[in-house]
Amino acid sequence: MQNRILLVGAGGHARACIDVIEQHGQHTIIGLLGTPDEVGCTVLGYSVLGADDALPAMRREVENALVTVGQIKTPDPRIRLFDLLNAGEWNLPAIVSPHAHVSRHASVGAGSIVMHGAIINAAATVGRNCIVNSGALVEHDAVVADHCHIATHAAVNSGVHIGAGTFVGSGSSVRQGVTIGARCVIGLGQRVLTDCAPGSQIPPRRVA
Hints:
208 residues, alpha/beta
């Protein structure tokens, strides 16, 4: 039971998580939970065993779980599931790809996943229930609060502070020392040079 893990979410992000967990090699995936219409399907060979209401029964069989729902427009689905798992006293391990680098002087919170090729440098802090996606960079002394998604090849530079529930889009970069408030959405390819108030919505950068 110690290293068996249940994945909560059965969409596209779950597929990427499965690959990281398989490469990570420290947990055996027993299956996934999804939406009612996904029950009975398979995701990369793993069965969708039930929906959210199956969590109490599953907890009697396994103690580890990971939220594997993606996050772009809103963190709310991931927060709801994370809170459900906490209430059920699940163990929520941080998962780090063997193809990522997390400094031994950095910290990654419970239930977060660090995908292939990501880098988290010294004295950086990543909170709980976060996604640091493929090729993303969290530089030294940066702080990423709970429930954030740092998307593919985004660069969070030194000393940046990112508030809870914020999304930083693919290929975006955040200038050193900038503060981004909670629940912001930074669109694909943006260059964030100044502080962003909580709830800011910056659309994807358009290149002619």
